[in-house]
Recover the amino acids of this structure.
């Protein structure tokens, strides 16, 4: 059995670099489900070309991407390239919100069950880790499930108007 891989994150640039690496790994492995959680995703590099390329490589039939946030207004304003990608892959992407919690109480994480968990325990100072350890994956899933159970769908792909 191989040794668990663990990477510490101590800065914004490290968070972005590790996020890029994690998404590339998820795309290469082809995991079935991916979860992303943050208060508003305003500081995630979701419109970066490398992120879009990794998500496109990952997106195949029977896959599911779930985003959980307090609100999606900043994501819609700051990440136009991701919003456009989502329109194309809307059958795979579900956006959810939990309005009972403050944005700061939502876990900031990327979870690919059975593969990796990227978690910021202090999103203000960018302190966190990337782990492939089974125990960390279970803890990440439990933290996310507790919030998802009380969430609802939001952020429609298109807005109907008059």
């Amino acid at each position: 059995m191989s040794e668990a891989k663990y990477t510490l994150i101590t800065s914004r640039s490290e968070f972005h670099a590790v996020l890029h690496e994690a998404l590339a790994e998820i795309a290469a492995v082809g995991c079935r489900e991916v979860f992303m959680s943050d208060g508003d995703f305003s500081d995630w590099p979701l419109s970066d070309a490398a992120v879009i390329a990794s998500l496109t490589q990952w997106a195949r039939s029977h896959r599911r991407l779930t985003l959980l946030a307090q609100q999606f207004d900043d994501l819609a304003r700051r990440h136009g390239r991701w919003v456009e990608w989502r329109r194309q892959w809307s059958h795979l992407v579900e956006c959810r919100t939990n309005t009972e919690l403050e944005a700061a109480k939502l876990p900031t994480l990327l979870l690919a069950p059975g593969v990796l968990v990227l978690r910021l325990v202090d999103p203000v100072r960018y302190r966190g880790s990337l782990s492939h350890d089974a125990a960390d994956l279970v803890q990440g899933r439990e933290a996310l499930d507790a919030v998802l159970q009380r969430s609802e769908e939001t952020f429609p792909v298109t807005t109907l108007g008059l």
In short: The radius of gyration is 15 Å. The chain has one domain: 6-153. The beta strands are 6-9, 33-37, 64-69, 93-97, 108-112, 116-122, 127-131, 152-153.
